[in-house]
Amino acid sequence: MVLNRMMIARIICVLLCFFSFGFHAAAAPLNVRGAILMDLDSVKVLYKQNENKRIPPASLTKIMTMYLVFDAIKAKKISLDTKVKISRKAACTGGSSMHLKKGDIVTVKQLLYGMAVASGNDACVAIAEHMAGSEKKFVRLMNEKARRLKMNHTVFKTCNGLPAKGQYTTANDMLALSRNYIMTHPECLTYHNTKQYAYRDYVLRNKNPLLGRYQGADGLKTGWTRASGYNIVSTVRRGGTRLLAVILGANTDTIRAKELKKLMDAGFAVKSHKIAKISKAL
């Protein structure tokens, strides 16, 4: 059969798409939906994989919520000792919780620990209502902050990351958020590297898989919803080097921990000149 030029062009197009897809798959060694790794000292991106893929943020949303709290403390609008009365809505918030009850009087400091350690959805609603009058108004502040940080592929719909239609982020945007957060408020790591915190009779435990198990690990935040999979932002400091990694969409918490450790190991290997490229270690 003689092929005309149009048919040949179509075949070439299909082949190019096939090989392009094959190359892309081969260049994605991490078993996650999106990832990025940065050396914060040189501000150099060491690795990226589907870094602009839109994925629900889940509890990584709490990084932005805590960022706004620290901003308000710095501006002297509130303090760590500011007392917050817990509303019925905050106390009834579902998902991960620091076990607040309606009528509780807690400090901003307690709520920060509740968000960072227990990933308390109730703590987020409580601080949102206190600072902005309602969660809806607080979320508006979150999105305004995201625009200022040039998080152009992120939309927040809740203050805690609970599922909501139209809520999404990317690994690249989460990197921008977390980098600015750590640089602006380094004191935040005191909360994020706390392994456990007690409230009432509850012992709240941090789910960050690297804390206490990986040299230099000192934050930041995990997250999970059915739609997002297992997410994490993690920072590790060794000597004069601080790495910041974002992993989105792992299928299990075990895979999340394994791929995060693999990425961090490769990053430090590059920094110590043991390998030339991260791809050689993944």
How many domains, in number, for the residues? 1
Instruction: Describe the largest sheet.
Output: 5 strands, antiparallel
CATH class, named Alpha Beta
Q: List the helices and strands in order.
A: HEEHEHEHHHHHEEEEEH
Describe the protein.
The structure is a single chain. The protein is of the alpha+beta class and 282 residues long. Helix content is 40%, strand content 20%. The chain has helices at residues 5-26, 61-74, 88-91, 108-116, 121-132, 135-148, 171-184, 189-192, 253-271, and strands at residues 34-39, 44-49, 83-85, 105-107, 196-199, 202-205, 217-225, 229-238, 241-250. Strand 7 (217-225) and strand 8 form a beta hairpin. The chain is globular and about 55 Å long.
Task: Give the gist of this structure.
The chain has 282 residues and is of the alpha+beta class.
